[in-house]
Known about the structure:
95 residues; alpha+beta; five-stranded mixed beta sheet; two-stranded antiparallel sheet; globular
Amino acid sequence: MGYSQAALTDARSHAVVSSALAAGGFDTAWIGLHDPDGLGTLEWVDGVPIEYEQWAPGQPAIDTGDCGAVRLPGTGLWSTNDCTDSFAYVCGVTP
Length: 95
């Protein structure tokens, strides 16, 4: 068993993560979105393409960063940020 940044692939996983972050007092946290080749195509860290999306207005904005974060409070919507920004992170368990 291993761990990696979480992939929010459906409304349920998005709600669970958003609730946990709000309960923990976090306003922004990394999720497992990234642009591995720098060509402007985001995918989950496990290589799965994005099918479920919860982007904030004007996002994704690849020119502002190649990594994805979920932003709270309020919307819980996703944004792209510079990968060197310092945020909490959300992990998932892999078999």
